[in-house]
Fold these 4 entries.
Entry 1:
Amino acid sequence: MSGTSSGEPAAPQEADPHRWWGLVVIALAQLMVVLDATIVNIALPSAQRDLGMSDGNRQWVITAYTLAFGGLLLLGGRIADLVGRKRTFVIGLVGFAAASAIGGAAVTPAMLFGARALQGVFAAVLAPSALSLLSTTFSDPKERGKAFGIYGTLAAGGAAAGFIVGGVLTEYLNWRWCLYVNVPFAITAVIGAYALLRDRPGTGGARLDVRGAVLGCGGLVSLVYGFSEAQPRGWVDPLVLSLFALAVVLLAAFVWWQTRAPMPLLPLHIIRDRNRAGCMVTMMLAVIGMFGMFLFMTYYLQVILAYSPLRTGLAFLPMTAAILTGSTQISARLLPHVGPRMLMVPGMLLASGGMVILTQMTVDSAYVSEILPALLLIGLGMGLTFMPVFSTATAGVAPRDSGVTSATVNTSQQVGGSIGTALLNTIATSTGASYIASHLTDPAQRGRIVREGIVHGYTVAIWVAAGIMLLAALVAGLMVTARAPKHGTPAEHPVAEPVG
C-alpha cells in the first residue's frame, strides 16, 4: 500500500531489470538453508564417532537446528519487515556462514550443537527475508509463477539434494565440509545481494512485539521439543506431556495477545484469509509426510539394502528431478490458468499414491522396480503442490506484511518437518520392536527377523504418512478457493486489510 514503490499500474514494465539475477541470489541463499536441514544426516555417523557423541545426544545435531529455525521464524519475518529485507537478508547470510564455520571446527559435541542452533537462528532471519524479497520483486502473475516455480523446487528438492551433497562430502572429504561448504555459498550470495537486490526501506518508527515473540516462539519451541522427546521417552512421559501442555498454553496466549497488541508479531488477518490458511495447513501436512519418508528411505537404503552414503544420495536424484518437473514445467505453466487447488489436490493424491507403493517394500525389494516408481510419484506430487502453496500464500499481501507472511509459510514447513520426523519415527520404532518381539522364535533367524521388523515399522509409518497426505489433499480441496492469479487481484495491488 505504500506509494514508495511504483504507483503506476504498469508496474511490470518498471520492474527491476536485474530481477532474474536477483532471483539467482535469493535461490542460492534458500538452497543453502534448505540443504542444511538434511546435509548433515549422512555425515552424522562420522561426526558422532569423531566427537564421541552418545546415541541419546546425537539427535541434537538435527533438532538444535530445526528447533531454532522453526521457533524463531515469525520473529525473523517481522524483523525483515521492520529493518528492511535486503539488510536482514545480508545479516542472515553472514551469521549463517559464521555459525557454519564454528560447527565445522567443533571439537566437542556441545560446540557442534551450539553452532547448529546458531545456524537455525540466522536461518530464521534469512529464509523469510529471501521469500519476501522474491514476492515483492516479482508482481506480474506470469513471471511470479516462474520465479516461485524455481523457489518451490529448491524448497522441496533442496532437502533431497542435501543427501547427495552430504554423501559426496562425507565420502571424499570429511564430515566437517558438510558445514564448511556453506561459507562460499554465503559469500557469493552477499556479493550478489549488494550488486543485484533492491528493496524498500524498513518501516520507520515501528517496534517489535517482544511479548508476542516470547509467547509465539516459546510455544513453537515447546511443541517441536515435545515431539522430538516423544521418540526416546514415549508419548505419556511426564516431560513430553508437560511440553505439549506448555505449548498449548503459550500458543493460546500468543493468539489472545495478537488480538490486543498495538503492533502484533503476526497480524491475524494474515491467517484469517481462507486461502492463506489452507495453503499453510496443506504445507505442514505435506512436509510431515515427506520428512518422515526421507528419514525412513535413508535408513532403508543404507541399513537394509547396504548402499553407501553417496549411492543413497544418488538414489534420491530421480525424486529431485520429478520435483523440478512438477514445479517448473507443470505448476508454473498451469498456475496462471487454473486455480491453485487444481494443482495442489492432484499433487497430494499423487504423493499419497507414491507412499502407498512404498508400503509394499520388503527386505529384498529392488530399487528400480519397487522404490523408484514411488519416489517419482512423490516428487511429482510435491512439485505440483509446493509452487502454488508458496505463490498463493504470499500473493496480495500488503508490502509491510510480506516478511511475516513468508515466515508463517516457512514456519508451517519447519514445524511440519519436525513433527513428521518425531511422530513417524516413534510409530516406526514401536511397531518394529513389537514385530521383532512377536516373531523372534528361532535365534538362528535373528538377523533376518530384526531386518524384517525394521522394514515393517517403516511401512506402518509410511501408511500413516500416506493418510496425512490424503488429509492434505482434502484440506487443499476444501479451503483453497482462490482463482487463477491472472483472474484475481494483481500482487502489486495488495488486498485491503482491516488494520491500522
Entry 2:
Amino acid sequence: MIINHNISALNTHRQLSSATNAQSKSMEKLASGMRINRAGDDAAGLAISEKMRGQIRGLDQASRNSQDAISLIQTAEGALNETTDILQRMRELATQSATATNTTSDREEIQKEINSLTSEINRIGNTTEFNTQKLLTGDKNGAGSAAVTAVAGEFKIGITDTTAGITINGETLTGVDVDAIVTAIGTNANLKDNFTATAGAGADAGKLILTQKTGKESSTVPTVAGGNITTTTEGVTGKAAVAADSSKSLKFQIGANENQSLTLDIADMRAKALGLTTAGTGDKLAVTDGTNNTTTEQALDVTTHESAAAAITKIQSAIETVSAERSKLGANQNRLEHTINNLGTSSENLTAAESRVRDTDMAKTMMEQTKNSILAQASQAMLAQANQQPQGVLQLLR
C-alpha cells in the first residue's frame, strides 16, 4: 500500500476534468445554438462558414441595392410619363394650329401654350432627382454619341434671286422665285423623296424651307449652290462628338462579388435634346430652362400652317424618343425584379448550407450534455472514494 501517489485518485481526477470540459462545451453550444463558437471547435468548418457568411451578407445587400435601383428607375420613368402626356398635348395643339379655321390671333394663343408646355418639359428634365442626383439632364448618360454636323430636320435657305437656277444636292432646279423652286422640288423624284419643301412666310419670307421626311433624316446640311443664296444654315445647330464616359453611367451593384453590376444610361430628356426647340430668344417663342426661368431657346413655331405641320412630325419624333427611353427603363426594372428573386433564392440556399456547417443539432447536443453531466457526477463520486483509500494504511498502525 502507498500513500505518496494515489493513482486511482489521479485517474479519476483526469476523467472528471475531461467530463467537466465536455460538459462545458456542450453547455456553450446549447446556449449559443452554434456548433462552432471558436476556431478550435472546427478550424476548416469555421473558414468555410465565414466565407459563406460573407457571400450571404453580400447577396442580401445586393438585393437591397436592386430595390433602390428600381426606385430610381421608377422616379425617372414617372417623370417621363408626364413628359409623354405633355408631348401628346403639344401634338394635339400643333394639329389644331395647322388648320386654316384658326385666325392669326388663335394661333398665337396656341403658340403660348406650346411655349409653356415646352418650358415644363425643361423643368421636369432639370429638376427630376433621386437622392439629390439629377436623372434626366444627360449627366447619367455615359454612352456618348457620334459627331453630328447639323441637327436633322428643318433647313432654311434664304434666296433673293433664282434667275440662274439653283442646285440642291446635285439636282439643278430652275425658276424665278421661291414658289417656283418649291414646285420644281415637288416634281423631282430624288428631292421629293427626301424633303418636303415649302415657301417661308412672315419672318421667313423669301426663304426655302426644306424639312427632311421621316426615315430620311440626315445630319448633313443640304448642298446648295447657284442663284443668290444668302444663307443655308439658319436654324441648323451642329453637334460635336460626345466621347463615351463610363463614369457618368449609373452602375448598380447587383451581386456579392466584383464585376456583378448593371450599367444604365439615361439620356437627356429636355426640350432641346428632344428636338423641340431652336436657338434664339425671341419673345414670341420664348422657352425657359425650367429652373430659374431664364429664356434660353425658342419653341417650335406653330403660327402658320407650314410650321405647325412640320411641328407635328417633330413632336411625334420626340414622343417616340421618350417612349424608347421609357421602354429601356421598364426593361431594366423588370430585369432587376428578376435579379432580386434570384438573389433571394441564392441567399436562402447558401444560408441553409452555412447552417449545416455552423449550427448545432440541439437534440444531439442535449444528449451529449446529459451524458457528460452524469459522467461528471460519477467522477466526483469516484474521486471521493479514491481519496478514502489511503485511510486504510492507518489500520496497520493499531
Entry 3:
Amino acid sequence: MITRRNVLKAGAAVAGTAGAAGLLIPVASGTAEAADLDPATVPKFAQAMPIPPTLAPYSSTGTADYYAMTMKEADVQILPGRLTRVRTFNGSFPGPVIRAKSGVRAVVQQTNNLPVATSVHLHGAHVPMDSDGGPMDLIAANGGTKTYTYPNDQPHANLWYHDHAHHAESENVFRGLSGTYLLTDDVEKSNTILPTGAYDVPIQLRDARFDDQGQLVYAMDDFLNRNVILANGKAWPYFNVEHRQYRFRIFNTSNMRYFNLSLSSGTFTLIGTDGGLLEKPQDMSSVMLSPGERVDILIDFYDYPLNSTVELRNAADAMPGGPADQITKVLQFRIGSTGAKDFGAIPYQMRTFPALPPATVNRSFTLSMDENGMATDMGYINNVSYDMNRIDTEIAYGTTEIWTVTNANKIIPHNFHIHLVQFRVLERNGKPITSGPEVGLKDTVNLNPGETVKIQATFTGYRGTYLYHCHIFDHAAMGMMAQMRVS
C-alpha cells in the first residue's frame, strides 16, 4: 500500500530571485544551509494587516458567476523588510476572497502553474464529487487546468478553499495554498444590524517557521518550531479600526496550531461558526479554534478609549510549543477617532435551525496515531491508515446518521472533518452541547486526548466518494484519513 507518510518530503522553501525594490531583502539562493530565524527578532505590530482582495467574477448570468484563478509562486512580504517565496492563488497570500450567494452557482477555473500537482477542496461545501477536490483528482503541475462547479445549494456559511492533493496537501497549504469563500443568503442578509462592507473583515490565522533568510521551512509534524503567528499573511500585524462595531470572521488555516483567542481587555460576541450564524448570539471571553475551524465574532470598539489599542491574544496553553511572548500575541487593534456608537441590539434570534431528523444508523470511529516521535509514525482511523483504493464506509443516500468519534491518544489532540455535509454536535464526553460554537452548524470538531464527541449528519444531495479525516493536515498526511461512499 502506498501511504502519504513515505513520500512526503521535508525541507526549506524553493530558492529563487525577487528583483524587488526598496528595503525588501530579495529571496536568497542556497537557503538549504540557512539556520532558523529567531522569532524574537521579528518586530511585533509593525505591519498593517491587509484584507485579502475580493475576486470579481469575469462573467455573470444571474444564475452563475464565473471566476478564474491561477496557482503560482510569488514573493511576498510576510516578515518586515524581507521577501518570502510562497505558493499562492493569483499571487495573493492568503488567496483572494470569493463572495458567493446561495442559489447562484460559482464556476471556478483553476490553472496550476506550480511545479507540483494540486487539488482544490472547498472546505465545508455541499458539492458534487467531481468538484470536491479529492486527493487523487489532481490538476497537473506546470499548466494543468480544472473547472470546479460549486452549486451553492446550502445556507450561508464561512467556507474556505485549500489544496488537498495526495501526498502534498500538508506542504502546499503550509506554503500558502488557501483562501476564503464567504457564502451568503437571505437569512444572513436579514440580520441588517450586523456590520457590512469595510466593517466585515475575514481574518486567516496560522503559524509558520522561517529560516534566517526569511524563507519558509517545512517539516512534517513540526508544531514545536512554527512559532511566528500570521494574520492575513503578515507576522504579528496591527489593524486600524474606527470607534465602532466590527464583524470578524476568523479562520484557523494552520496545519497544526490551535488558537484559544481572547482580547487583552473586554469581551466579544460570538455570532457564528463554520456553518454560518448561530441561532442566538453569545457573549464570550475566549473561544478555541482547532485547525480548519472558524468563528464569526463582533467586537465593539466604541467600548474602548479613542486612540487606544487592544490585542487579540492566544492562550499559551492552546497547544504545546513556543515561547509565550511569541505564540500568545496575534494581532493589535488600533482604535482611531472616527466612527460612532451603533444603535440597535443584535437580534436575539438570528436564525432557526430545522429540527434534527431521526437517525437510523449509528457508527463509531477511533482516531489514533503512533506517539513514538519517529519519522515512521503513522495515523489511523479505526486502526487503519488511508488507502486510496479502499472504501471504508458505505452510506445509503439520504440517511441520517449519528457518528461517535473518539480520540484514543493520550498526548496528541486531533480533530474531525467530514466532506460533503455540515453536521450538528450532539454530545461531548457524554454531555449535551448547550453553548459555545458547537451549538451551531459544523464541519470540523475538535477532540482532545481521550475525548469523545457525537455528531449527526444527513447524507443527501450528491452521491459519490468523499473523505473524512483529521484536519490537522500533518496528521491526515500521516494516514489519518478515510473514504466514505454515498450511494
Entry 4:
Amino acid sequence: MECPEERVLAAFGVLEPAVRLVGGQGETWRSGDVVLRRADAESAWRAEVLSVLPESDAFRVPRPVRAADGEWVAFGWEASELLAGATDVRRQDDVLVAAAAFHEAVAGLPRPDFIDTRRDPWCDGDRVAWREQKIDGTPPYVELVGPLVDAWRPVDLRAQVVHGDLPGNVMFADGLPPAIIDWPVYWRPTSWAAAVAVADALCWYGAEPGLAARWAHLPEWGQMLIRALIYRMTTDDLAGGAANWTTERRAAYAPVIELALSYSG
C-alpha cells in the first residue's frame, strides 16, 4: 500500500515522514504521535463516537484527529492518536474484560446506516451466520460447517454496536488500561463479539478450552459460538474459496466446532 502523501500529512498537521507500522495488515502508518490509515465507510461515524467517549479506568481508545478543515477524513485518509502498548494474544481473558467495559460504554448508540450497505467477505459472512443471507459455499466449507448449521437455532438477544475482531486488536501497556483499536463495527449481541474472540483464540492463538468455559455464563453461549464459527468459516470461504481449506485450516477449526456443539445443548 502506498505511503500517505505529503498533502495528507499536512492536512492532519504532522511533519515527520510516515513509517509503516507492524500489524494493521500493512495499511497503517505513523507520523510522529499520529497514526494514519485509509478511511472507509465507517470512519466518520467511528471518529464521532470515539471523540466523545468518556474516559474509563477499564479501557482506552485511540482518539481521532481532525484534519485542518475540521473533517475526520482528508484525501481518503483518517488519523488518530498513537497509543502506548502492544498486542498480546495470550491475554484473551483480559481482552474480554476490556471489551465488556467498552461494549457497556457504547451500548446506547443507535444502529449505524452503513451496517446495511457494506459488502465484503466479513460482513457477508456475518449475515450468513445469522441467516440473513445465503451463499453457495465450496464443498469443503459445506462439509465442515454442516454440523454447526444443523445445531443453529433462533435466539432472543439485544443487539448493539460491538467490536467484531478483538483478539489481536487490544494493546497492553504497564500501568495503563488495555487499549481497544481497529474497531470493525457490527450490530450484534455482546456475547457474540465475545464468542468470536474466544473462537479465534482457540483456533489460531493457542488458547485452551478452559477459555470458553470461563465465559460460558454469557447469554446463549453455545449459539453464539456456533454463529462465531459460521461467520469465520464463511468469510474464509468467500475470501479464498476451496483453495483456502488446507488440511491445517480444517484441523484448526475441527476441535473448536466440537467444543461449540458441546455448549449448544
